[in-house]
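Quick one, C-alpha cells below:
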C-alpha cells in the first residue's frame, strides 16, 4: 500500500480586499469585500514507501500549502488525504508520531538550550522508549556528525550546523515519512552538499520516504528520483527525473567540431528537419526535434556527410527543463481558455 494517497485535493483561502483611499477605508468598516483564492486545485498523486520525491513549482504555485495539508497543519477544503493509513488533520496526534518535518529556517529546537538537551526533550515529547531513543540518537550523531556541537546552545550554531541539528530532531522518533520544505535555503554550497548527502544516507539506511520542496533545482538533481511539478495549484508533471528531461527536452542540440569547413546549404538540403547554426567554419550547432529525427540517426548522417572531429549532445539543465514545462502548461491553459470562450 502506498505511503501517501492524495485524491482531488483542494485548498481555498478567503482574502480581504481593501478599498483605496479614506472613503474606501470607511466603507470597509461596515461592508468588507472578500475574494476566494484557490491555492491547490484538484491535486492527485500517490507516494510509495521509500521514494524520494521532488515537489517543485514557482512562488505561489501551491507547494507549501500542499505540504501543510499533508502534515496536518491545514485542513483541506476538498478532496482526500490518506497518509500512513491516517487522515493527517483528523488523526493529528497519532500521525505526527510517525512523520518528521523540516521547514527551512524555522527551527523546532529550543534556542537557549544545548542541542543535546533539545533532543532529550523531543524524545520525551514523542514518548520514545529510553533505550530505543538512545540508540537512535547515537546513530544520528554518527550519521550527521553532531558531536562537534552537541553541547552548544542552538543560538550559537552556524546555519549549516542548525540545519543538521533540525534534521536530526525530525528523525529522532524514527519517522516513516519525512517532509522537507526548503531544507537548504540560506546555506553555502559546502553545507548544501553535506545536507544532500546526509538525506541520501537517511533514505538508504532508514528507508525513510522523503517529500522535498525546494527552489534550488540542484537539490532535485541530487536527491529526487521522481519529480512532481505544480503550477497554479495543479500538477502539470509527475514522473521520473529522466522522463522529465526527455519530455521537456524534445528540442535538442548537437555541438559539432569539424576537421574541414562544411557546405551549409548542402547540409541543410540533406537534413531539412534540422536547423544549423555556424559559429565559425569549423564549428556547427544543430538544433532538432527528437521526434522528427532520433539523435542516433542524426549523428550517423552527420558523420557520413562531414569530416567530424567531435560531436557533443549536452543535456539541458534542470532549470531549462522546468522552464519548458511551465511554458507548455501556460500554453495548454491558454488554449483551454480560448476554447471555453468560443464555446460560450
Amino acid at each position: 500500500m502506498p505511503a501517501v494517497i492524495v485524491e482531488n485535493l483542494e485548498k481555498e483561502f478567503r482574502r480581504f480586499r481593501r478599498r483605496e483611499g479614506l472613503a474606501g477605508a470607511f466603507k470597509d468598516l461596515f461592508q468588507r469585500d472578500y475574494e476566494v483564492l484557490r491555492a491547490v486545485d484538484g491535486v492527485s498523486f500517490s507516494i510509495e514507501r521509500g521514494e524520494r520525491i521532488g515537489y517543485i513549482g514557482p512562488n505561489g504555485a501551491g507547494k507549501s500549502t500542499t505540504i501543510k495539508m499533508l502534515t496536518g497543519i491545514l485542513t483541506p477544503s476538498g478532496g482526500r488525504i490518506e497518509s500512513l493509513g491516517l487522515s493527517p488533520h483528523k488523526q493529528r496526534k497519532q500521525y505526527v508520531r510517525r512523520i518528521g518535518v523540516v521547514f527551512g529556517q524555522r527551527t523546532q529546537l529550543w534556542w537557549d538550550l544545548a542541542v543535546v538537551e533539545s533532543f532529550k526533550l523531543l524524545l520525551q515529547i514523542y514518548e520514545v522508549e529510553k533505550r530505543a531513543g538512545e540508540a537512535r540518537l547515537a546513530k544520528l550523531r554518527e550519521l550527521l556528525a553532531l558531536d562537534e556541537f552537541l553541547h552548544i546552545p542552538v543560538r550559537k550554531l552556524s546555519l549549516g550546523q542548525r540545519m543538521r541539528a533540525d534534521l536530526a530532531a525530525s528523525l529522532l522518533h524514527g519517522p516513516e515519512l519525512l517532509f522537507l520544505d526548503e531544507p537548504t535555503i540560506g546555506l553555502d554550497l559546502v553545507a548544501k552538499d553535506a545536507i544532500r548527502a546526509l538525506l541520501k544516507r537517511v533514505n538508504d539506511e532508514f528507508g525513510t520516504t522523503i517529500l522535498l520542496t525546494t527552489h534550488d533545482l540542484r537539490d532535485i538533481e541530487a536527491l529526487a528520483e521522481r519529480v512532481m511539478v505544480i503550477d497554479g495549484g495543479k500538477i502539470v508533471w509527475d514522473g521520473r527525473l529522466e522522463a522529465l528531461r526527455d519530455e521537456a527536452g524534445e528540442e535538442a542540440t548537437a555541438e559539432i567540431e569539424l576537421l574541414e569547413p562544411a557546405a551549409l546549404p548542402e547540409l541543410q538540403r540533406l537534413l531539412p528537419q534540422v536547423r544549423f547554426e555556424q559559429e565559425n567554419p569549423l564549428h556547427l550547432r544543430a538544433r532538432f526535434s527528437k521526434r522528427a529525427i532520433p539523435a542516433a540517426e542524426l549523428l550517423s548522417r552527420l558523420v557520413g556527410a562531414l569530416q567530424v572531429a567531435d560531436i557533443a549532445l549536452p543535456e539541458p539543465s534542470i532549470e531549462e527543463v522546468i522552464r519548458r514545462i511551465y511554458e507548455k502548461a501556460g500554453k495548454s491553459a491558454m488554449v483551454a481558455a480560448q476554447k471555453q470562450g468560443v464555446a460560450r
